[in-house]
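Annex B. Sample input.
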Amino acid sequence: MKKLRQFASLVLTVAMAVSLCACGGTKKAETKKLKVGISWSEDNLDTAKDDYCNAVIKAGGEPVYLAQFKTEEEAAAALKDLDALVMTGGEDIDLSYYHETKDPLLEKSNEARDVSDYALINAAIKTDIPTLCTCRGMQFLNIICGGTLYQDFPSKVESDIIHRDPNHKVFAYHDITVDGNNIVADAFGGAGTYEVNSWHHQAVDKLGDHLNVVAKSADGIIEAVVKDDNTYFMGLQFHSEALIVEDGKDAYLPFYQNLLKAAETKKQK
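Annex B, continued. Sample output.
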């Protein structure tokens, strides 16, 4: 009788195992999410409300807030653990990085952030990590590539377009024209005219080396660039993360989804 019970128990165990396999009961290892670094802006950031963080999550990535860097070596070491990078918007950039006479309309800079962003963008270029540079990030990319900025383009460029709310409370919105056959156009869905948000008083003046202009506003302000000697490296003057998170416009989600796709492609090589 004892042997009969043991045999019955064995048959039941085998049957359960077969049933679990047939029903997909065995758990597959979860796919690890791609890690997207978000450049340092301040120490006490409310991450739950951060648009960059939420855009990365919505695109299917894992946001990683980066520390403040003091050297390119520190930045390069941190990038080894990441799959992609987002450079964020923010303050004006100190003139020491592009050697011009100070305009009275130049606004405050952040020395610690300038040092950190300079190190991080340089490291990102050299490691060829897929990178999206937003607003200030695009401006700093241009400087690092040898370009310059309008310290306050509204006082230098005649335009009917409002690029920043005079009260600094809400985004302004305007159209840009996007050229075809580039990674920015791919994210938009092709060449054409698109509405974007806007919050800036500085802009690219002299274009840096190896940067291709792929989008402009009607007044000639450069709205997007692509670095032609890196695999996937773009700069956007507008804030795609806010369009996705604050405005709920999923049409702009490919800016983050495509960044992840580029990271996955690189990882598989």
